[in-house]
Amino acid sequence: MSIFLLQVTNAAVSAAPDSVNAAVNAANQADGGLSLIDLILKGGWIMLPLFILLFVSVYIILERYLTIRKAGGQPESFMNGIRALMVKGDIQGAKLLCAQNPSPLARMVEKGLRRLGLPLTEIEASVENVGKIEIARLEKNINILGIIAGIAPMLGFVGTIIGVIKIFYAINATGDFGIAQIAGGLYTKMVTSAAGLIVGIIAHAGYHWLSILVERMVFRMENSAIEFMDILQDN
């Protein structure tokens, strides 16, 4: 009897690792069987507008960043050059330097140079008006990111509603409440919600990041405009 029990025990012990390995392999296959594309397709048609919003957000962030970075230039060296030319009385040289520097600051200074001979208040007003136009150019399309940051999570919520509708439709059609009936709807619900939040976060972060860059650029332009007016007063 003891020999029989020992044989049964050994068989069970030897069979346990096999069953564990089989379970692990099945789990690994289940985890690796769902690719990113399959996961996206589970979200349904609502994923298309979310991808469009993602593309628009990334494009605006990159395009505005490069534009703002290019507009920054080297205001210190530029203003030092303007000051040196103004001290010498070389107005044409100062205008030429502005023409060679395609930046918002250069366009502001050039406007002021073209108004030389008028009262300083009028020159200052002209410089400020050009500055407002340049700031509006820098802020172009940034507000769209704020709109996307609000719309994307809402679209994800629409996908959530669609997923819930699918679940109740499957239950009503089959008369059964089980995994088979709720799995498809849950896929749609979770995938669209996650995608909407991700797109919204990217747009929201990009909006505030670009706004900070524009604010820094505006501060530098204002300081340079004040410096330019000081140069005119000194001369």
TrEMBL record:
This protein's GO CC annotations: plasma membrane
Protein topology in the membrane: Multi-pass membrane protein
Protein location: Cell membrane; Membrane
Keyword annotations of the record: Cell membrane, Membrane, Protein transport, Transmembrane, Transmembrane helix, Transport
InterPro entries recorded: ExbB/TolQ_transport (IPR050790), MotA_ExbB_proton_chnl (IPR002898)
Principal location class: membrane
Transmembrane segments: 46-62, 142-171, 191-214
Gene Ontology terms: biological process: protein import
One Pfam family named in its UniProt record: MotA_ExbB
PANTHER family, per database record: PROTEIN TOLQ, TOLQ-RELATED
Entry similarity comment: Belongs to the exbB/tolQ family.
Name of this chain's protein: MotA/TolQ/ExbB proton channel family protein
